[in-house]
Amino acid sequence: MISIDLKVIEKQDERITIKFNNVPRQYVNAIRRISISEVPTFAIDDVVILENSSVMHDEAVAHRLGLIPLRTDLKKFSLPDECSCKSTLGCVHCRVLLQLDAEANEKTKTITTSELISEDEFVKPVNQDIPIIVLAPGQKIKFEAYARLGFGRDHAKWQPATISVVKYDGENENEIFLTIESNGALTAEEIVIAAVEKLNKSIKEFGETINSIQVPTNL
Description:
The chain is of the alpha+beta class. It has helices spanning 25-37, 58-66, 188-212, and strands spanning 5-11, 15-21, 41-52, 95-103, 109-112, 117-118, 131-135, 140-150, 161-168, 175-182. Helix content is 21%, strand content 33%. The chain has a 4-stranded antiparallel sheet. Strands 3-8-4-6 form a 4-stranded antiparallel sheet, with helices on one face. Helix 1 crosses helix 3. The longest helix has 25 residues, at 188-212. 29% of the residues are buried.
């Protein structure tokens, strides 16, 4: 019987490295791919500009907001298409409202993520010093931004991992190293756990589908 061995080589909030021993390469590589494309995170997906007298177009502001990593709680919120509200607008269970109302008075002012006000205490920018826009004296920006859970397969703004790589030991073919680095939306450990759960669920569903297929008796 093959002995499966897992060992955490390094673990920080932003980075984790795991050594797999006697685990199929396909399984480890699947975890790597799912960590990038199938683990959901929050990202701003809809922006309502209420006032913008800056030199930056509304579309550019919205694009920049979408790329801001947001801390994510996967246990508290639902994916939009799985939420019981069944609404295209969403509800408090599947979307989070972030607002900003800023103005430059006598001096040029750089507006950062520290001025974004979220209706949820947890879902906030992972860094408070990310620049959003620069306002000249007398200019103002005011908007409402709605964040939703999504997948990296649909848009890069929903990717939780900045690095997801698999390396093989040149001397021992049975040893495989998986390294995940997070953008801060989830911890690296949370990404790996969510990826493994997703993979195991997919394998189980595939097995159930295969078992449900009825082979014709006349073959």
